[in-house]
Amino acid sequence: MKKDIHIDYEHFKSSSELNEVEKQLFEKAKTARENAYAPYSNFLVGCSVLLENDEIYTGNNQENAAFPSGLCAERTALFWIGANFPNEKIVKIFIIGGPREFSEKTPPIPPCGACRQSLMEYETKQNKNIEVYFSNLNEEVFKVKSIKDLLPFYFDSSFL
To answer: How many CB atoms are closer than 10 A to CB 111?
Structure first.
């Protein structure tokens, strides 16, 4: 039996099309990206996370010579929030990534597979969707209403 997967998403050609909260998340993710520690890959990623209490926290990728001991921007932020605000719900996450020497050809960078699975864990834990935005420095932005849109065949605790 053949089936199709349909993904709903929004595409913004520029961050100027975003609302004020989304613009703030874009700017904070962009700043977080500048502080990434990526001497090995030279691929910098920053993210900003909006909590239900309207607080915004950021993360960036942190590499290590003992690969793969580093951590992606999304998981850096998610795990810190989980450790410090375990009962706060995550509303949105905004990700900006690309090579240190940014090229006009660099597409918007979505979360990697490990970060998608980590986002799924938090979405499942809080029983509420997390809006995911991903962008590049050209300010082109994609938005999905849930990580399930980027990870349709996800693994969660129902399998355990």
So the answer is: 24
Instruction: Supply the pLDDT for residue 83.
Output: 98
**List of E strands, 9-135:** 10-12, 43-51, 56-60, 90-99, 131-135
Compute the C-alpha angle 8/147/152, nearest 5°. Answer: 75
Place of tokens 């992606």: 72
- pTM for the predicted model, two decimal places: 0.95
- Percent of the chain exceeding pLDDT 90 equals 89
The partner residues of 98 in beta bridges, in order of sequence, read: 44
Peptide bond into 152 cis (omega under 30): no
Task: Count CB neighbours of 153 within 10 A.
Answer: 6
Q: Say which amino acid occupies 22.
A: E
- As annotated, the active-site residues are 74
